[in-house]
Design a protein that fits this description.
By secondary structure, this protein is α/β, with parallel strands linked by helices. Strands 14-13-15-16-21-20-19-17-18-22 form a ten-stranded mixed sheet, with helices on both faces. Strands 7-6-3-2-1-11-10-9-8 form a nine-stranded parallel sheet, covered by helices on one side. Strands 12-23-24-29-26-27 form a six-stranded antiparallel sheet, covered by helices on one side. The protein has three domains: about 300 residues, Alpha-Beta Barrel (TIM Barrel), CATH 3.20.20; about 220 residues, Rossmann fold, CATH 3.40.50; about 70 residues, Golgi alpha-mannosidase II (Immunoglobulin-like), CATH 2.60.40. The protein is globular and about 75 Å long. It contains 17 helices and 29 strands.
């Protein structure tokens, strides 16, 4: 058993703390020839300070049942430590070896009842199955006990992007029935809460519960998703408990999130972690900026993953999982995706994104991966090094990033981002809207299963475009939200809400907060039964308006401002996709429909409620109008200290561990631009001092990190 450096490796002093780690996933076992020292030397030269290892290769750790090969990683850890490179050690449970699938087929996951997922991909097991847990625990204990005392290891990544599949295995179905017994007590309560009188679906016995495959009941669907998320959270909690038996006090436990995995609720799962970690991918080239000098590539995975606002959103979401700094375990090095999607970043864009993530609280920026693979499913997902394994444009830019982290040093230690406004997120509303989406895909009558993300993202982007810095809170945090700390709380598309949640929202506004609600707020209860009150139900008196009718909008509808209320939505604002038919009951209109089925009626209202205010947005706004509405909510954001910014330039702010203000300036365009210093500033990277009124030149796709001088 290995407990530290091999005898041949000199033991250096423990590396000094680094405010922000620069990292890559490193797989010596994937390299076409032995080049460990060359790779680590290249990392050292580029100021890489961490690597992630071991999480993808169960078959390397355990080539056959009960036969373990553990020594192979020792040289990687020794070499990393010798170069003051920290190591995050992964558990390999997300990619199982063929022998495990062959010998124990019952552990393979089923996407539909009785239909196992064929072997050949990843995350294809039922991780609630005792047989799988036995083998997973065995390999986890062997790996972690072997290397926990190695001084290079700073933490552990459990699994990888958990929650990819909704499991339909027989044991999962049995577990779901037990879950319903705990939640509801008896079948009569399930019948009542889910409305199973409809279509004669009442249960007389727990065994009457039909497989999820054919379900059409929204209450069932939401309970099923809650249970699937609990399975995933339990799996990670279970792994964490094993790893912590061996981990040193100075080592952390994490897992990397891909937020929209169907079987995970990130905020709940994060409670078992020491620090949250996230994988953030984005569309680059022209899609990353505000400059239309050339056609932008399409987003890689969904229609929203485009623009700097998307990167900021992913970072704010990660910070909101724990309320603390977080790790970025993966982001673009070069082209991402499959062989048909080849859009490497323009010069400067990797650096811009790295600093954007740092400004929002990232304590590590990790790239997937060090070298581009020469085989396998992700052969064209570009790494720091290309297929020729020689340093090129990507390496050189990340070398610059690493050097800038080094030069900035204590100035970026412990950054706490400025916050202007908070958004409240609800996975349960997202799941319920996947089942019953309010929006249709643009230009069709087909449901948009991403309706929640579309609505939430539109509000977040409006904040970003208005120069607001945002924190994202989970619905579970609502009880702790106080108007004094969070003066404006935006709650997009809170479709699923219990009576307690609605009362907490009312209480927030009554205590002096400005609550912003949207269409579909509280429309169903926690069992997805439509409420029988006139909407917005229990929030009606706080909103100061009501509605009975609503409509989808096949084409945008113009809006007219109610200028006397101070909300200027621009020259040609439009309502898109949806419209509530609001009737004022104490509130005043901020905007009215200028056409469509509810022409002349209020589209956006605002209402003084006790010590606070409630604004209700009964439609979805086009991006320019949304930006102006968000600016109305926070007329003096933190970014107001930088007046008159040129088009395409954004600013962000944070406070470091010494209590000093740090400003970040980005030029999201291919044009050089000039910004005027609003006060005396010190460039953390170039060590240049700028007096108030000095002109700071930002090159194409450039970023500056500036400390407010004393």
């Amino acid at each position: 058993m290995m407990t530290g450096l091999s005898a041949a490796v000199p033991e250096p002093t423990r590396p000094e703390p680094v405010p922000v780690l620069l990292s890559a996933a490193y797989y010596r076992e994937y390299q076409p020839y032995d080049r460990l020292d060359a790779d680590l030397d290249l990392m050292r030269a580029a100021h890489f300070t961490a690597i992630r290892v071991g999480e993808s290769v169960w078959a390397t750790w355990e080539p056959s049942d009960g036969v373990f090969r553990l020594d192979w990683l020792g040289a990687v850890l020794d070499g990393a430590y010798r170069r003051e490179i920290r190591v995050i050690l992964g558990t390999p449970t997300y990619a199982v070896p063929p022998w495990l699938a062959r010998k124990y087929p019952e552990i393979m996951a089923q996407r539909r009842s009785g239909q196992p997922i064929p072997y050949g991909h990843r995350q294809n097991v039922d991780y609630s199955h005792p047989g799988f847990r036995f083998h997973a625990e065995r390999v986890i204990r062997r790996i972690v006990s072997a290397y926990a005392q190695h001084p290079a290891v700073i933490g552990y990544q459990l699994d990888n992007e958990p929650g990819l599949e909704l499991l339909h295995n027989p044991g999962v179905a049995d577990g779901f029935r037990e879950y319903l017994r705990r939640e509801y007590g008896n079948v009569a309560e399930v019948n009542r809460r889910w409305g199973l009188a409809y279509w004669s679906q009442q249960l007389s016995d727990w065994q009457d519960l039909w497989p999820e495959d054919g379900n059409t009941n929204p209450g069932y669907a939401l309970a099923w998703r809650r249970y699937q998320a609990e399975i995933t959270a339990d799996f990670i909690r279970w792994q964490a408990s094993i790893v912590r038996e061996y981990a040193r006090p100075d080592q952390f436990v994490t897992t990397c999130f891909a937020y929209r995995r169907p079987a995970v609720r990130p905020a709940a799962l994060a409670r078992s972690l020491d620090i949250a970690a996230v994988n953030i991918y984005y569309a680059s080239q022209a899609a990353l900026g505000f400059d239309d000098h050339e056609a932008a590539p399409p987003p890689p995975f969904s229609s929203r993953e485009s623009g700097p606002w998307w990167v900021a959103f992913e970072a704010d979401f990660a910070r909101g999982l724990t309320g603390r700094r977080f790790l970025v375990t993966e982001t673009n090095a070069s082209s991402i995706g499959e062989s048909h999607y080849n859009y490497p970043a323009f010069d400067g864009q990797r650096r811009q994104v790295a600093w954007l993530l740092v400004s929002r609280g990232a304590a590590m920026i990790g790239y997937w991966h060090w070298h581009t693979l020469h085989y396998g499913h992700e052969m064209y997902w570009g790494g720091v090094l290309g297929h020729d394994l020689r340093p090129g444009r990507t390496y050189e830019e990340l070398q610059k990033v690493g050097n800038e982290f080094r030069l900035a040093g204590a100035a970026i230690d412990g950054l706490e981002p400025d916050v202007d406004i908070a958004l409240l997120h609800s996975d349960e509303s997202r799941w319920a809207m996947e089942f019953s989406p309010p929006l249709a895909r643009e230009g069709t009558t087909q449901p948009d299963r991403d309706s929640y993300d579309e609505i939430f993202g539109r509000f977040y982007r409006g904040c970003f475009d208005a120069g607001l810095q945002t924190e994202i809170l989970d619905i579970a945090d609502l009880a702790a939200v106080r108007a004094a700390r969070t003066p404006v709380l935006v709650v997009p598309a809170l479709y699923v809400a219990s009576d307690d949640v609605l009362e907490a929202l009312r209480g927030y506004a009554a205590a002096g907060g400005h609550l912003v609600l949207t269409f579909r707020s509280g429309y169903v209860d926690e069992h997805v039964q439509a409420r029988h009150e006139t909407m917005p139900g229990a929030l009606r008196d706080a909103v100061g308006a009501w509605y009975q009718e609503y409509t989808n909008l096949p084409v945008p509808v113009p809006l007219t401002d109610a200028a006397d209320q101070g909300a200027d939505l621009g020259e040609a604002p439009h309502a898109v996709a949806w419209a509530d038919s609001l009737v004022l009951e104490g509130a005043v209109a901020l905007a009215r429909y200028g056409g469509g089925p509810f022409a002349g009626g209020p589209a956006i209202t605002t209402h003084s409620y006790q010590r606070g205010r409630v604004t209700y947005v009964g439609t979805l706004l086009d991006p320019p109008a949304m930006r102006r509405l968000m600016a109305w909510l926070i007329p003096v954001p933190a970014s107001a200290a930088w007046p008159g910014l040129p088009a395409g330039v954004t600013v962000g702010g944070a406070r470091n561990s010494a209590g000093r203000n740090v400003s970040f300036l980005w030029n999201w365009s291919a044009r050089e631009t000039v910004v005027t210093a609003p006060g005396k500033l010190w460039d953390c990277v170039s060590a240049t001092t700028y007096p108030e009124g000095a002109e700071l030149t930002l090159g194409p796709w450039d970023v500056r990190v500036l400390l407010q001088d004393k």
